[in-house]
Write a structure and sequence with these properties.
The protein has a single domain, classed as 3-Layer(aba) Sandwich (Rossmann fold), CATH 3.40.50. Helix content is 47%, strand content 14%. It contains nine helices and seven strands. The strands form two sheets. A five-stranded parallel beta sheet has the order 2-3-1-4-7, with helices on both faces. Strands 5-6 form a two-stranded antiparallel ribbon. Helix 6 packs across helix 7. The chain is globular. The termini are close together. The protein binds adenosine-5'-diphosphate (ADP) and zinc ion (ZN). The site of zinc ion has 8 residues, from loops.
């Protein structure tokens, strides 16, 4: 099954994607993670992507589309995948249509006030990508791989505001674009609860 996750930054797409991967096996393809890997390299491109991400703006469509195209042509994506953070513009969605057929778009829905609160308290494992929240996780060490957790540069207040504006303007029109295959889920409650309704939906879909 080919799934895309829609929703504002901090709405819980990454956490949801990991649970789907765990139970259904489709690989999670997070463009944010792909870009964070690029940023670790020592190159002109790395420096460019780093400064874009730190401002909360979007990486240019052309590069983003190229990276996703390469990634989903790999063998592990043969039977399906979950795109987390892509597409983020109508232009990207149109390009994706030309590459493959998406079965379903899951909209992870959360109000901006809660998002700002969750992002400002989000801790990320730089090694394995696991996500924690300082409100309910009282340690600086990743439970999965023991690396020291960090606050992402773009989870700082100034950047959060900008990312939400970029979402409103560029990404929210995708809700309309995918209206014929949209499944909407609220992530206002626990991550487990959000996942439960998505799981039921995916199981029905697969029948
Ligand atoms: P979040 O969903 O929490 O905002 P991501 O990890 O998905 O974070 O993305 C972090 C940053 O990576 C974005 O703010 C943007 O600069 C860049 N990025 C990720 N995906 C895309 C995309 N599809 N198009 C353009 N830029 C992207
Ligand atoms: Zn870890």
């Amino acid at each position: 099954m080919k799934i895309i996750l829609l929703g504002a930054p901090g709405s819980g797409k990454g956490t949801l994607a990991k649970k789907i991967t765990r139970d259904f096996g489709f690989p999670q393809i997070s463009t944010g993670d792909l870009f964070r890997a690029i940023v670790k390299e020592d190159s002109a491109l790395a420096r460019e992507v780093k400064s874009i991400m730190e401002s909360g703006a979007l990486v240019p469509d052309e590069l983003t589309i190229e990276i996703v195209k390469n990634r989903i042509s790999q063998k592990d994506c043969e039977n399906g995948f979950i795109l987390d953070g892509f597409p983020r513009t109508v232009n990207q969605a149109k390009a994706l249509e030309k590459i493959t057929d998406i079965d379903s778009a899951i909209l992870v829905d959360l109000d901006f006030e809660t998002i700002i609160d969750r992002l400002s308290s989000r801790l990320t494992c730089p090694a394995c990508g696991e996500i924690y929240n300082s409100h309910n996780y009282d340690s600086e060490i990743c439970q999965k791989c023991s690396a020291t957790l960090i606050q992402r540069d773009d989870d700082k207040p100034e950047t959060i505001k900008n990312r939400l504006e970029v979402y409103e303007k560029n990404t929210s029109p995708l809700i309309n674009f995918y209206s014929d295959r949209l499944f909407k889920v609220s992530s206002a409650n626990s991550a487990e609860e959000t996942y439960r309704s998505v799981k039921t939906f995916l199981e029905k879909f697969g029948e």
